[in-house]
Write a structure and sequence with these properties.
With 333 residues, the protein is of the alpha+beta class. The chain is built from 7 helices and 15 strands. The longest helix has 21 residues, at 24-44. The strands form 3 sheets. An 8-stranded mixed beta sheet has the order 4-3-5-6-7-8-9-10, sandwiched between helices. Strands 12-11-13-15-14 form a 5-stranded mixed beta sheet, with helices on both faces. Strands 1-2 form a two-stranded antiparallel sheet. The chain is 28% helix and 23% strand. It binds 6-O-phosphono-alpha-D-fructofuranose. 6-O-phosphono-alpha-D-fructofuranose binds at residues 118-119, 121, 211, 246-248, 251, 274. 6-O-phosphono-alpha-D-fructofuranose (P6P) binds next to helix 5.
Length: 333
């Protein structure tokens, strides 16, 4: 008999570690697993069933929406509506909050903020994409109509967060506040199986991930850091290696395992950076910190930023602890 732990077995075994146990969060994580399997199936046949290419519409970020974006968004909304644990969703694909209309949703105790399919511009060129999610307890009273206050919560209030990477394999990575665990989908049994237990991100690394095409607009500290990483100095293992795939989940996940720093700084075009606080900044910062890394705007911890708008953006420097601190050294010179 093969020796593996499925997501379901893990969640039951670890139940006592989950805040507000009572099985609700376990069911929520199970629902995320189900939705991710459906999206994985769609992503893996993208080239075959003519769901490539633009859906024609544009989302609130004014980005061309690919059909898979729609499928991803609708899949998660339908799954959470059926599950009954979630009362409201904020999605990168929707302008406002999505109060769920499922039979029990009004009594749902949990809130989801999600980017159902991040990196969707990579769909047509067969590059890895991902789902990113945050889970909070609602702040409004159970049984009442959820409000924006339920989704506008700082990352230091998170109950759980994680991502799904649709890459060479489909991997679900999440934390409920007791470290980071990764589960790889085994299509032969249709189960997510524990593949990386208690991930610790290396304190040091040589990989820096940033879109240097915007370099002219970067803050001086970032420009100085990018000069420093390219200098020849064997004692500090430089020059470093540039790795940037343009799909945050893929860039983040590689850096999480190998050591590295991911940077999306402010630019003239996007004075607060391009990435969204609710849908990318907070959940990925939670995972970075739970794995022993850091995540900062350059002036404060991202998990302490109090959201005021659903689609607000945030500058991001996140990853290996010593690498983030090195970037901050240049930013604070
Ligand atoms: P740029 C994808 O559109 C995304 O939201 C992230 O997944 C990715 O890290 C970033 O934007 C890429 O942005 O400006 O470098 O193309």
């Amino acid at each position: 008999m093969e020796n593996f732990t499925t997501l379901g077995q893990f969640v039951i075994e670890k139940q006592q570690d989950f805040p507000y146990a009572k099985g609700e969060l376990s069911r929520l994580l199970r629902d995320i697993g189900i939705a991710s399997k459906i999206i994985s199936r769609e992503v893996n046949k993208a080239g075959l069933t003519n769901i490539l290419g633009d859906h024609g519409s544009v989302n609130v970020q004014d980005e061309d929406v690919k059909k898979l974006d729609i499928i991803g968004n609708e899949t998660f909304i339908a799954t959470f509506s059926k599950g009954g644990e979630v009362c409201v969703i904020a999605s990168e694909e929707n302008e406002g909050i999505i109060p769920l209309k499922g039979t029990f949703s009004k009594n749902g105790k949990y809130v989801i903020c999600m980017d159902p399919l991040d990196g969707s511009s990579n769909i047509d060129v067969n590059v890895s994409i991902g789902t990113i999610f945050s889970i909070y307890k609602r702040v409004t009273e159970v049984g009442t109509e959820p409000t924006e206050a339920d989704v506008l919560q700082a990352g230091n209030k998170l109950v759980a967060a994680g991502y799904v990477l649709y890459g060479t394999s489909t991997m679900l990575v999440f934390s409920t506040g007791n470290g980071v665990n990764a589960f790889t989908l085994d299509p032969s049994i249709g189960e997510f199986c524990l593949s990386h237990a208690n991930i610790k991100s290396p304190d040091n690394g040589k990989i820096y991930s940033i879109n240097e095409g915007n370099a002219a607009e970067f803050p001086q500290g970032i420009k100085d850091y990018l000069t420093w990483v390219k200098e020849e100095d064997k004692t500090t293992d430089r020059p470093y290696t540039s790795r940037y795939i343009g799909s945050m989940v893929a860039d983040f996940h590689r850096n999480l395992l190998k050591g590295g720093v991911f940077i999306y700084p402010p630019t003239a075009k996007s004075p607060n950076g391009k990435l969204r606080l609710l849908f990318e900044g907070i959940p990925m910062s939670y995972i970075a910190e739970q794995a022993g890394g850091l995540a900062t705007t350059s002036t404060m911890r991202i998990l302490d930023v109090e959201p005021t708008k659903i689609h607000q953006r945030v500058p991001i420097i996140m990853g290996s602890k010593n690498m983030v601190n090195k970037v901050l050294e240049f930013m604070n010179k």
